[in-house]
Amino acid sequence: MKTRLLVLLAAIIGAIGWGVCVGNQVSAADGEFNLQVSPSPLVLTLKPGETTSQELKIRNAGTQPETLRIDPRSFSIDNMSGDVKVDDTKKPPEIGDWVSFSSQTFTVQPGEVFTEKVTFAIPEGAGFSYSFAFMITRQNDAPTTTDSGRKIKGKVAIFALINIDKPGATRKLNVVEFSTDQNVYEYLPAKINVKLQNAGNTIVRPAGNIFVQRKGDDTTPISTLPVNSGEGYILPGSVRTLSAEWDDGFQVVHESTDAAGNAQKNVEWNWSNLSHIRIGKYTAKLVAIYNDGQRDVPVMGEVTFWVFPWKLLLGVLVIVVLLGFGIWSVVSKVFGASRKVKRTVSAKNRR
Q1: Do 155 and 123 share a structural domain?
Q2: What ranges make up the beta strands (E) of 122-270?
Q3: What was the pLDDT predicted at 186?
Q4: Count of domains observed in the chain
Q5: Same domain, 148 and 182
Q6: pLDDT recorded at residue 1
Q7: Cβ atoms of residues 307 and 252 within 8 Å
Q8: pLDDT tens digit sequence for 178-227
Q9: pLDDT recorded at residue 77
Q10: Distances (CA, A) of 155 to 28, 69, 85, 150
């Protein structure tokens, strides 16, 4: 069987969404093409006129030597879907010639690590921020044909996010929308979405929490959910949706896939959370922060939703009705027997 090569961009883009890769390393692995690269993303704050170098560690975890090349490439973000599209043929024009490599082509033996030194020579007239990707490919970038006839290439992308520290740099984050995906849930989890917009001209990384409570003015929340636990970044002019799930309940729906690939929903009864039966109205409060360059600035939001487990309540109602009917029947029989005894005694006394 011919060796298949992985086009890693889809996996990387799925992890980074709109310009961030979670963690400190990315990897591409399929067949004999197996690279591990760190750090990722590469995030820097530099000054105009500054020249600095950063190291990328590229490990060949495959079984054969790899002759590779590294190139800067442009990428774009769809604000509606959050999808990232990398142009693997186009050099970002905005970075000009101020990004260079110690070895643009290099060979890495199996099990060895190659250190690529990337130099940034920031011009005096630089803008406020830059975002692009470093694409690592085989020097012989000819596609490999798989058994199915598809032609694919082995690639790995490392995203570079550069802030320029200069007068006029602004960081501003707006809450575009804070909502749940449903107004009423039968069971948890409740999915809470935070849509944030970077209205400044530099890259921002938000943090914070979502507090779930009974009422908006409660001082003690029922649950606390982290915002942006992956420590992702939002690029200038971009909108990013962060999601959190509240699943701290007695009854929780879990989604799974059967053998035929069909989606299924199963209700799990967590008896250790018996005291956490969620019924009624709840309020989720957002408290997120970002650094504007001088201090931490809070942004806030609030949304209400309902949890109404009607099947559970209907079952309880049926049990109560049946139990009440049973008690009524027993009591009726007892009182009926008592009245019968009294009538019998009265009849005898009259005789």
Answers
A1: yes
A2: 129-138, 144-145, 151-152, 155-164, 173-180, 184-185, 190-198, 207-213, 223-227, 239-246, 251-257, 263-269
A3: 93
A4: 2
A5: no
A6: 35
A7: no
A8: 999 999 999 999 999 999 999 999 999 999 999 999 988 888 999 999 99
A9: 81
A10: 7, 10, 14, 16
Q: Which amino acid is at 94?
A: E
SS3 38: strand
193 and 59 co-located in one domain: no
**How far is CA 207 from each of CA 7, 32, 266, rounded to the nearest angstrom?**
32, 39, 32
- Positions in the chain short of pLDDT 70: 1-31, 141-153, 337-351
| C-alpha distances out from residue 83 to 52, 77, 219, 249, Å | 31, 6, 38, 33
Q: Can you tell me which residue has the tokens 């694919």?
A: 152
254 vs 53: CA distance, rounded Å: 47
Q: Is residue 333 part of a domain?
A: no
**Cα–Cα distance, 342 to 348 (Å, whole number):** 10
